[in-house]
Amino acid sequence: MRPDQLGDLAVFAAIASDRSFTRAARRLGVTQSALSQTMKRLEGQLGFRLLSRTTRSVAPTAAGERLLATLSPALAGLDDEIEALSQTRGAAIGTVRITTGKHAADTVLWPMLPSFMRNHPGIEVEVCVENDMTDVVAGRYDAGIRLGERLEKDMIALAVGPPLRVAVVASPGYLGDHPAPMEPADLTGHRCIAYGNAHGDLSPWSFERYGRAVTVTPGRGPVFNDGDLLVAAALEGFGILYILEDLVAAPIADGRLIRLLEPWCEPFPGYHLYYPDRQGSTAFELFKEALRESKAL
Question: What are phi and psi for residue 57, nearest 5 degrees?
Answer without folding.
Answer: -150, 165
